From TrEMBL:
Keywords: NADP, Oxidoreductase. The keyword Chloroplast does not apply. Coiled coil: none annotated. This is NmrA-like domain-containing protein. It comes from Triticum aestivum. The keyword NADP applies. SUPFAM superfamilies: NAD(P)-binding Rossmann-fold domains.
Length: 281
Protein backbone atom coordinates (compact mmCIF):
# COMPACT_ATOMS: atom_id res chain seq x y z
CA UNK A 1 0.00 0.00 0.00
CA UNK A 2 1.28 3.44 -0.87
CA UNK A 3 2.08 5.56 2.16
CA UNK A 4 0.11 8.74 2.68
CA UNK A 5 1.69 12.13 2.28
CA UNK A 6 1.53 13.91 5.63
CA UNK A 7 1.31 17.58 6.61
CA UNK A 8 2.24 18.34 10.22
CA UNK A 9 0.85 21.60 11.63
CA UNK A 10 2.58 22.79 14.79
CA UNK A 11 5.66 20.82 13.75
CA UNK A 12 8.19 22.70 15.87
CA UNK A 13 6.24 22.10 19.08
CA UNK A 14 7.01 19.69 21.91
CA UNK A 15 4.94 16.89 20.40
CA UNK A 16 4.93 18.18 16.81
CA UNK A 17 8.69 17.76 16.34
CA UNK A 18 8.34 14.12 17.42
CA UNK A 19 5.49 13.62 14.96
CA UNK A 20 7.62 15.00 12.13
CA UNK A 21 10.43 12.65 13.15
CA UNK A 22 8.07 9.64 13.34
CA UNK A 23 6.51 10.43 9.99
CA UNK A 24 9.91 10.60 8.30
CA UNK A 25 11.09 7.45 10.12
CA UNK A 26 8.01 5.52 8.95
CA UNK A 27 8.73 6.48 5.35
CA UNK A 28 5.99 9.03 4.70
CA UNK A 29 6.50 11.96 2.40
CA UNK A 30 6.37 14.61 5.13
CA UNK A 31 5.51 18.28 4.89
CA UNK A 32 5.69 20.75 7.76
CA UNK A 33 3.73 23.98 7.87
CA UNK A 34 6.08 26.95 8.12
CA UNK A 35 4.18 29.97 9.40
CA UNK A 36 5.49 33.43 8.45
CA UNK A 37 4.56 34.49 12.02
CA UNK A 38 7.67 32.72 13.34
CA UNK A 39 9.47 35.93 12.32
CA UNK A 40 12.82 36.13 14.06
CA UNK A 41 12.40 32.94 16.09
CA UNK A 42 15.77 31.50 15.16
CA UNK A 43 15.23 28.25 17.11
CA UNK A 44 12.06 27.48 15.16
CA UNK A 45 13.66 28.37 11.87
CA UNK A 46 16.67 26.15 12.56
CA UNK A 47 14.42 23.29 13.59
CA UNK A 48 12.43 23.66 10.37
CA UNK A 49 15.65 23.67 8.36
CA UNK A 50 16.81 20.53 10.17
CA UNK A 51 13.50 18.84 9.18
CA UNK A 52 14.23 19.88 5.61
CA UNK A 53 17.72 18.40 5.83
CA UNK A 54 16.12 15.13 7.01
CA UNK A 55 13.86 15.03 3.95
CA UNK A 56 10.76 17.01 4.95
CA UNK A 57 9.23 19.67 2.72
CA UNK A 58 8.41 23.03 4.26
CA UNK A 59 5.09 24.49 3.10
CA UNK A 60 4.72 28.18 3.80
CA UNK A 61 1.33 29.46 4.93
CA UNK A 62 -0.23 31.33 7.78
CA UNK A 63 -3.19 29.84 9.61
CA UNK A 64 -4.83 33.21 8.94
CA UNK A 65 -4.31 32.83 5.17
CA UNK A 66 -7.18 30.64 4.00
CA UNK A 67 -6.06 30.34 0.38
CA UNK A 68 -2.46 29.55 1.32
CA UNK A 69 -3.63 26.96 3.81
CA UNK A 70 -5.95 25.29 1.29
CA UNK A 71 -3.06 25.17 -1.21
CA UNK A 72 -0.82 23.50 1.42
CA UNK A 73 -3.49 20.98 2.43
CA UNK A 74 -4.09 20.06 -1.23
CA UNK A 75 -0.54 18.74 -1.47
CA UNK A 76 -1.05 15.95 1.08
CA UNK A 77 -3.40 13.09 2.03
CA UNK A 78 -3.23 13.37 5.80
CA UNK A 79 -3.06 16.38 8.14
CA UNK A 80 -1.83 16.00 11.72
CA UNK A 81 -2.23 19.01 13.98
CA UNK A 82 -0.04 19.25 17.06
CA UNK A 83 -0.85 22.84 17.87
CA UNK A 84 -0.48 24.10 21.37
CA UNK A 85 -3.27 23.24 23.76
CA UNK A 86 -2.17 25.39 26.66
CA UNK A 87 -0.48 28.67 25.97
CA UNK A 88 -2.89 30.51 23.68
CA UNK A 89 -6.08 28.60 24.25
CA UNK A 90 -8.95 30.51 22.70
CA UNK A 91 -6.75 31.89 19.95
CA UNK A 92 -5.62 28.39 19.06
CA UNK A 93 -9.19 27.13 18.99
CA UNK A 94 -9.89 29.76 16.36
CA UNK A 95 -6.79 28.81 14.40
CA UNK A 96 -7.61 25.11 14.50
CA UNK A 97 -11.13 25.88 13.29
CA UNK A 98 -9.52 27.74 10.39
CA UNK A 99 -7.50 24.61 9.63
CA UNK A 100 -10.73 22.57 9.64
CA UNK A 101 -12.26 25.10 7.20
CA UNK A 102 -9.26 24.76 4.87
CA UNK A 103 -9.41 20.95 4.99
CA UNK A 104 -13.13 21.08 4.25
CA UNK A 105 -12.61 23.32 1.23
CA UNK A 106 -9.59 21.39 -0.08
CA UNK A 107 -11.78 18.25 -0.02
CA UNK A 108 -8.89 15.84 -0.66
CA UNK A 109 -7.81 14.90 2.87
CA UNK A 110 -8.20 11.21 3.68
CA UNK A 111 -7.52 11.63 7.38
CA UNK A 112 -7.28 14.54 9.83
CA UNK A 113 -5.85 14.12 13.31
CA UNK A 114 -6.65 17.25 15.35
CA UNK A 115 -4.46 18.30 18.24
CA UNK A 116 -5.84 16.14 21.06
CA UNK A 117 -3.25 13.79 22.57
CA UNK A 118 -4.59 13.89 26.12
CA UNK A 119 -7.64 12.49 27.91
CA UNK A 120 -10.57 11.74 25.61
CA UNK A 121 -12.46 15.07 25.84
CA UNK A 122 -15.76 13.28 25.20
CA UNK A 123 -15.34 11.64 28.61
CA UNK A 124 -14.23 14.76 30.49
CA UNK A 125 -17.55 16.49 31.02
CA UNK A 126 -16.93 16.28 34.78
CA UNK A 127 -13.50 17.98 34.65
CA UNK A 128 -12.95 21.08 36.77
CA UNK A 129 -11.66 24.43 35.62
CA UNK A 130 -9.03 25.50 34.67
CA UNK A 131 -8.31 22.25 32.75
CA UNK A 132 -11.94 22.00 31.71
CA UNK A 133 -11.70 24.68 29.02
CA UNK A 134 -9.19 22.74 26.92
CA UNK A 135 -11.53 19.69 26.84
CA UNK A 136 -14.48 21.89 25.86
CA UNK A 137 -12.44 23.46 23.08
CA UNK A 138 -11.29 20.08 21.79
CA UNK A 139 -14.97 19.05 21.66
CA UNK A 140 -15.75 22.17 19.59
CA UNK A 141 -13.09 21.17 17.09
CA UNK A 142 -14.50 17.60 16.95
CA UNK A 143 -17.94 19.04 16.25
CA UNK A 144 -16.61 21.13 13.35
CA UNK A 145 -14.73 18.11 11.91
CA UNK A 146 -17.74 15.82 12.12
CA UNK A 147 -20.17 18.42 10.73
CA UNK A 148 -17.82 18.86 7.76
CA UNK A 149 -17.66 15.06 7.27
CA UNK A 150 -13.88 15.09 7.41
CA UNK A 151 -12.40 11.59 7.88
CA UNK A 152 -10.56 11.69 11.18
CA UNK A 153 -8.81 9.86 14.01
CA UNK A 154 -8.66 11.16 17.57
CA UNK A 155 -5.61 10.14 19.60
CA UNK A 156 -6.06 9.75 23.34
CA UNK A 157 -2.56 9.77 24.80
CA UNK A 158 -3.32 10.20 28.50
CA UNK A 159 -0.37 11.64 30.47
CA UNK A 160 2.86 12.64 28.73
CA UNK A 161 5.61 10.96 30.72
CA UNK A 162 7.99 13.92 31.03
CA UNK A 163 5.27 16.03 32.62
CA UNK A 164 4.14 13.47 35.19
CA UNK A 165 6.75 10.75 35.79
CA UNK A 166 10.06 12.37 36.89
CA UNK A 167 8.20 14.66 39.33
CA UNK A 168 6.20 11.69 40.72
CA UNK A 169 3.03 13.65 39.77
CA UNK A 170 3.99 16.69 41.92
CA UNK A 171 2.47 19.94 40.79
CA UNK A 172 4.54 22.94 39.59
CA UNK A 173 7.83 21.09 39.08
CA UNK A 174 9.23 18.69 36.53
CA UNK A 175 12.00 17.43 38.81
CA UNK A 176 11.95 14.53 41.27
CA UNK A 177 11.19 15.47 44.88
CA UNK A 178 14.24 15.15 47.13
CA UNK A 179 12.87 14.59 50.65
CA UNK A 180 9.07 14.44 50.66
CA UNK A 181 6.32 13.63 48.21
CA UNK A 182 2.68 14.73 48.14
CA UNK A 183 0.39 11.76 47.70
CA UNK A 184 -2.97 12.65 46.19
CA UNK A 185 -5.99 10.92 47.72
CA UNK A 186 -4.97 7.39 48.70
CA UNK A 187 -2.40 7.31 45.86
CA UNK A 188 -4.00 4.22 44.37
CA UNK A 189 -5.79 5.72 41.37
CA UNK A 190 -4.23 4.40 38.17
CA UNK A 191 -3.01 6.70 35.43
CA UNK A 192 -1.48 5.98 32.03
CA UNK A 193 1.94 7.48 31.31
CA UNK A 194 3.09 7.71 27.70
CA UNK A 195 6.55 8.33 26.35
CA UNK A 196 6.13 11.24 23.94
CA UNK A 197 8.12 9.53 21.15
CA UNK A 198 5.76 6.55 21.45
CA UNK A 199 2.75 8.89 21.19
CA UNK A 200 4.20 10.24 17.94
CA UNK A 201 5.09 6.80 16.57
CA UNK A 202 1.62 5.33 17.26
CA UNK A 203 -0.04 8.46 15.90
CA UNK A 204 1.71 7.99 12.56
CA UNK A 205 0.94 4.24 12.63
CA UNK A 206 -2.77 5.12 12.74
CA UNK A 207 -2.95 7.39 9.73
CA UNK A 208 -3.16 4.66 7.06
CA UNK A 209 -4.92 2.10 9.23
CA UNK A 210 -8.56 1.66 8.14
CA UNK A 211 -9.44 0.41 11.65
CA UNK A 212 -8.65 3.88 13.04
CA UNK A 213 -10.93 5.71 10.59
CA UNK A 214 -13.40 7.95 12.44
CA UNK A 215 -12.37 6.36 15.75
CA UNK A 216 -10.73 7.40 18.99
CA UNK A 217 -7.51 5.48 19.51
CA UNK A 218 -6.45 4.96 23.12
CA UNK A 219 -2.73 4.60 23.74
CA UNK A 220 -2.33 2.59 26.93
CA UNK A 221 0.47 0.03 27.08
CA UNK A 222 -0.23 -2.22 30.03
CA UNK A 223 3.14 -1.64 31.72
CA UNK A 224 2.56 2.13 31.62
CA UNK A 225 -0.58 1.95 33.77
CA UNK A 226 0.51 2.84 37.29
CA UNK A 227 -0.83 4.40 40.45
CA UNK A 228 1.07 7.24 42.12
CA UNK A 229 2.06 4.85 44.92
CA UNK A 230 3.53 2.43 42.37
CA UNK A 231 5.39 5.26 40.65
CA UNK A 232 6.86 6.44 43.98
CA UNK A 233 7.90 2.87 44.88
CA UNK A 234 9.70 2.52 41.54
CA UNK A 235 11.61 5.77 42.11
CA UNK A 236 12.51 4.82 45.69
CA UNK A 237 13.90 1.53 44.41
CA UNK A 238 15.88 3.29 41.67
CA UNK A 239 17.22 6.10 43.85
CA UNK A 240 17.73 3.98 46.95
CA UNK A 241 16.06 6.69 49.05
CA UNK A 242 12.74 6.51 50.91
CA UNK A 243 10.69 9.72 50.68
CA UNK A 244 8.43 11.12 53.39
CA UNK A 245 4.80 10.76 52.20
CA UNK A 246 2.51 13.73 52.78
CA UNK A 247 -1.09 12.77 52.09
CA UNK A 248 -3.26 15.38 50.35
CA UNK A 249 -6.91 14.38 50.88
CA UNK A 250 -9.03 14.86 47.78
CA UNK A 251 -11.21 17.58 49.41
CA UNK A 252 -8.08 19.57 50.27
CA UNK A 253 -6.71 19.19 46.75
CA UNK A 254 -9.99 20.30 45.16
CA UNK A 255 -10.25 23.24 47.57
CA UNK A 256 -6.73 24.37 46.61
CA UNK A 257 -7.69 24.31 42.91
CA UNK A 258 -10.77 26.40 43.67
CA UNK A 259 -8.62 28.86 45.63
CA UNK A 260 -6.19 29.25 42.70
CA UNK A 261 -9.11 29.82 40.30
CA UNK A 262 -10.57 32.40 42.71
CA UNK A 263 -7.23 34.24 42.88
CA UNK A 264 -6.93 34.22 39.08
CA UNK A 265 -10.46 35.63 38.73
CA UNK A 266 -9.64 38.36 41.23
CA UNK A 267 -6.42 39.24 39.40
CA UNK A 268 -8.33 39.23 36.12
CA UNK A 269 -11.04 41.60 37.36
CA UNK A 270 -8.42 43.88 38.99
CA UNK A 271 -6.56 44.07 35.67
CA UNK A 272 -9.80 44.77 33.81
CA UNK A 273 -10.64 47.75 35.97
CA UNK A 274 -7.18 49.18 36.53
CA UNK A 275 -5.67 48.97 33.02
CA UNK A 276 -7.23 51.44 30.63
CA UNK A 277 -8.09 49.94 27.26
CA UNK A 278 -7.54 46.33 28.45
CA UNK A 279 -10.60 44.55 27.14
CA UNK A 280 -9.54 40.98 26.53
CA UNK A 281 -12.11 38.38 27.63
P1 LIG B 1 3.38 23.43 22.07
O1 LIG B 1 3.02 24.42 23.15
O2 LIG B 1 4.75 22.89 22.04
O3 LIG B 1 3.02 24.17 20.70
C1 LIG B 1 2.89 23.43 19.50
C2 LIG B 1 2.83 24.34 18.33
O4 LIG B 1 1.63 25.10 18.31
C3 LIG B 1 3.93 25.40 18.23
O5 LIG B 1 5.14 24.83 17.87
C4 LIG B 1 3.35 26.29 17.15
O6 LIG B 1 3.51 25.73 15.86
C5 LIG B 1 1.85 26.19 17.44
N1 LIG B 1 1.39 27.43 18.09
C6 LIG B 1 1.53 27.78 19.36
N2 LIG B 1 0.99 28.99 19.55
C7 LIG B 1 0.52 29.40 18.37
C8 LIG B 1 -0.13 30.58 17.92
N3 LIG B 1 -0.42 31.57 18.74
N4 LIG B 1 -0.46 30.66 16.63
C9 LIG B 1 -0.19 29.64 15.79
N5 LIG B 1 0.42 28.50 16.16
C10 LIG B 1 0.77 28.40 17.43
O7 LIG B 1 2.30 22.25 22.10
P2 LIG B 1 2.43 20.81 22.77
O8 LIG B 1 3.30 19.95 21.94
O9 LIG B 1 2.72 20.96 24.22
O10 LIG B 1 0.91 20.30 22.66
C11 LIG B 1 0.44 19.58 21.52
C12 LIG B 1 -0.84 18.81 21.94
O11 LIG B 1 -0.49 17.86 22.95
C13 LIG B 1 -1.94 19.70 22.52
O12 LIG B 1 -3.20 19.28 22.03
C14 LIG B 1 -1.87 19.45 24.01
O13 LIG B 1 -3.11 19.59 24.66
C15 LIG B 1 -1.35 18.02 24.07
N6 LIG B 1 -0.56 17.77 25.31
C16 LIG B 1 -0.87 16.70 26.07
C17 LIG B 1 -0.17 16.44 27.23
C18 LIG B 1 -0.51 15.24 28.04
O14 LIG B 1 0.05 15.05 29.12
N7 LIG B 1 -1.37 14.38 27.55
C19 LIG B 1 0.91 17.33 27.69
C20 LIG B 1 1.20 18.42 26.78
C21 LIG B 1 0.46 18.62 25.64
P3 LIG B 1 4.66 26.14 14.81
O15 LIG B 1 5.55 24.96 14.83
O16 LIG B 1 3.91 26.33 13.54
O17 LIG B 1 5.31 27.39 15.29
Amino acid sequence: MEKSRVLVVGGTGYLGRRIVKASLAQGHETCVLMRPEIGLDIDKLQMLLSFKAQGARLLEASLDDHRGLVAAVKQVDVVVSAMSGVHFRSHNLLLQLKLVEAIKEAGNVKRFLPSEFGMNPARMGHALEPGRVSFDEKMEIRKAIEEANIPHTYISANCFAAYFVPNLCQMRTLLPPKEEVHVYGDGNVKAIFMDEDDVAAYTIRCIDDPRALNKTIYLRPEENILSQNELIAKWEKLSGKVLEKIPIPSEEFLASIKEIIGKKRLLYSTQRFSTSGWTST
